[in-house]
Amino acid sequence: MNAESMIAADPALRAVADAEETAWINPRLLPFDMVDGLSQLVVSDADIADAAARLQRFAPFIRRAFPETEETNGLIESPLRPIPKMQQRLAAEYHAVIPGRLLLKMDSHLAIAGSVKARGGIYEVLKHAEDLAIGAGLLTIDDDYGKLADMRDFFARYTMQVGSTGNLGMSIGIMSAAIGFRVCVHMSADAKAWKKNLLRSHGVEVIEYADDYSRAVAEGRRASDADSMSHFVDDEKSVDLFLGYAAAAERLAAQLAGLDITVDSEHPLIVYIPAGVGGAPGGVSYGLRRLYHDNVHCFFVEPAQCPSVLLGVATQRYEQVSVHDIGIAGKTDADGLACASPSSLVTRIMTNHMAGVFTVSEAHLYDYLRDLNASEGIRIEPSSCASFAGPLGLLRFPDARAYCAMHGLTPERLGNATQIAWATGGRLVPEEIWTEYLATYR
Ligand SMILES: Cc1ncc(COP(=O)(O)O)c(C=O)c1O
What we know:
Blueprint: H1 3-9, H2 13-17, E1 23-25, H3 32-42, H4 45-65, E2 80-82, H5 84-93, E3 101-106, H6 117-135, H7 152-155, E4 159-164, H8 167-179, E5 182-187, H9 193-201, E6 205-208, H10 213-225, E7 230-233, H11 239-246, H12 248-258, E8 269-274, H13 279-292, E9 296-303, H14 308-315, H15 344-349, E10 356-360, H16 362-376, H17 382-385, H18 389-393, H19 398-406, H20 411-415, E11 418-423, H21 431-438
Parallel strand pairs: 3-11, 4-5, 4-7, 5-6, 8-9, 8-11, 9-10
Antiparallel strand pairs: 1-10, 2-3
Helix pairs in contact: 4-11, 5-16, 6-8, 6-11, 8-9, 11-13, 12-13
The structure holds pyridoxal-5'-phosphate.
């Protein structure tokens, strides 16, 4: 399939092929009740509850291994913060109407690995460790999991491997090293040098490729398949990763309740999450849809230079499509979002759940980074800043306005809405890199 045939099938893809900022609205979004049954055959409520319970079981271990989680009793969770000054600043600077209340979900500041990828990545490492320890008769689910901290010699026989643009590698690397696994991270050319250095400082083996993320994943998968003691964390299709992300939804619901925020048909929730391969935004959005059904509207945000999830869902060619097919190089400063082809699992399971995708220009990533820093004193990495293209785009693009009209997002309901920009990374960025980011595209 080439650019012309894609555009012939969906004229909205013209702007995508031209790498313009745009809003692509998903024509296959269906009412929750219509897709619930089929979706649950793949990932059910019970699966998500099981994942949440597993994370709870691991809390004593996490607390022991990472004293920074003492305050949260070993749970890895991020703040949800109103950002009224950023909301005002965006509205004024970009002549935009941003209705309702804008909040920042700060996975950028998650403990341990400082990114949304920690949700899925850490979950999959822990699940694998639990499976191995239970299989060897060393653990039962009723034990205090703190004892896993004394089993490093057992875990040292096993290897974890992953292909990554950076942040998934950091979460797998740091948690695997804490458990005692040998760990090998296959990194794409887009991965930033500071992320590779940080991993090496944790004793992680980092293999670098001159190619893009798809190659790093393929090579990692191959190396792991050749070793019976190795487990590959497959960012392109892992259900365990997906479950780790999906478990975020219930925790967010508790935080919203804590802020006295209601979500119902009169008070919609609109969420914007940056997407690379789609796993993190897919899992989080899926979890939110399971809780809030049609009262939540889940948008992904991708660089205009690398809109792979958009293409996978729009063309229904899923992981078989690449941004190169539509004539885009896939090169972006948003290293975490530099995935030329999307996840096979996410593009399929989210086909009927996802509201659409906003795309963002390279320069705007840095503008939003400066805006957030200046208005709220919060720093998040460029990939993360993509999320602000959502609230700015909702009433800017005619197709997005048509989405609002079609889904009952009247001006009154939008006035009651909660909009969440999901900040997906940033805490571990070194100081000198901030100086560079703050001066880029200035
Ligand atoms: C900062 C940041 N945001 C968003 C994402 C997107 O996650 P996914 O690739 O699962 O779509 C990534 C992925 O690495 C990331 O590093």
